[in-house]
Amino acid sequence: MLRTIREFWNDQRGIAMILVAIMLPVLVAFAVLAIDMSRANGLHNDLQKGVDALALAAAAELDGRSDSIFRANNAVTNLLANKTLFSTSGDHQLALSDVTVTYLTGIPASDNTRLSAAGIDSNDVNWASTDPKAVTFAEVTVNPSGLTDGAGAFATIFPASFIGSSETMDIQPQAVAGFTQSICETVPIFMCNPFETATPATSKTIQQAFASGDTYSREFRILKVDSNPGPGNFGLIDNNLTSLRDAIAIGTAGTCYQRDKLTTKTGVTLGQVNAGINVRFDIYSNSLKQQDKNWQYRPASNVRKGVDKTANCNKYVPNTDGTAMALPPGDSFDSSTGMTNSTWDRSNYWLINHGATYPSIPSTSHPTGANVPASRYDVYKYEISHDLVGDKSKAPTKETGTPSCFKGDTPTADPDRRLLNMAIVDCIANQAKINGHIQLKPDGYASVFLNSPVQKQDNSKDDEDSSANEKPISLEIVDVDGPQGNGTLDKALRNEAQLYR
After folding, report:
1. Are residues 272 and 243 in contact, defined by beta-carbon separation less than 8 angstroms?
2. What pLDDT shows up at residue 372?
3. Eight-state DSSP code of residue 375
4. Global pTM?
5. Phi/psi at 428 (nearest 5 deg)?
6. Distance (Å, rounded) from C-alpha 456 to C-alpha 389?
7. Angle of the 15-59 helix axis to the 68-80 helix axis, nearest 10
8. Is 444 left (phi over 0), alpha (psi -120 to 50) or beta?
């Protein structure tokens, strides 16, 4: 008996079957778990691509406009309407109710600082905001109940309930994308928003004013900003060029400005502003005479400016005998806003410069297409398109709009050298930042038309002599950036939406 027991004890035949029987459930469990993890990883990757796309679509609309969040939500909704499926069977479409979209004013400096779906980080800092002008980031998170099958979660094959665990797995990818907008083709000048008031409720953005036609055909007169900046003022923006005069004459600040990060500049040298602008009217100050063959310093193709018959190529001498006329100033100038109304002397301008009755010129650049009297810019473009630039004004001045001081190749009408891209700033709201030269966010950018050269209070002095004191820069606003504009600034803007998390 004892021998039989000993033999049985030492007999190893069939041991493999016993081990297999013991390990088989474990091996199957690991295989099922591996399948679950593979499925979960694949689903997570698919969902991550989805929320990445949603975050980018939302962030691309966060341009600081009053309707930016509205447009961002529409972008998310429209993208989800594509009906991307995350399974080959059943209703596994990702819907708007499956994600949380939160808009943020910023994000933590470290990627290790976790952000909740509500925009609150692990240090209890709340980055979320509903202010469409303040938000620059879009955060998209898949909700715990974001998918079908009840809990929002991924249903596992592995029977986790046998070990007291859940048979579902939360899949909650998150993406954070941010928006930056830069402008490269602009002069380093900002103009105070003429439609801003001390009461925000009564203010208009430059885009709102443009879209409603409130800017059309008005003359805007802007003077150097002082310690109390507001409508009717202009100032300078930091740039990489050593010469402000050259930056304005050429038409580029030498850098691209991020739309929400402008810094004002001290030491405004008005003589340089004057000399740079007047190059576009075929006037070359003493220090710019050597540039009268340089294509970068070319004038516009139509430089009619109402000069005196004694004028020369290096100084602007306005006409005084009524035999030549620049595009006239507007009526009813309001010094508190720095602008006139939309009426001005079209008939006399045309009679003096073209010797005829003012024709019916369409208001082609009006943002709403309204049939109203043409702006100065539309009159100027009409002269070019109808080959009237060479018409002579009354004798003895006999001024034409054809450049005669520039010695280089004949200037072309496009791009138009009497147009400048310029930042528009809410100067009342940003007074402390302007005076302190702290980064600020402009209201937007405008394409402005130069009505006439810049004059001096003391015209006996050289253009770059700051002691001569400039008269205001006279201009019209012909377009603005953003969806409410006519789109001519789009080529100067560089919009970028990128993933940060």
Report:
1. yes
2. 94
3. P
4. 0.72
5. -65, -50
6. 26
7. 140
8. left
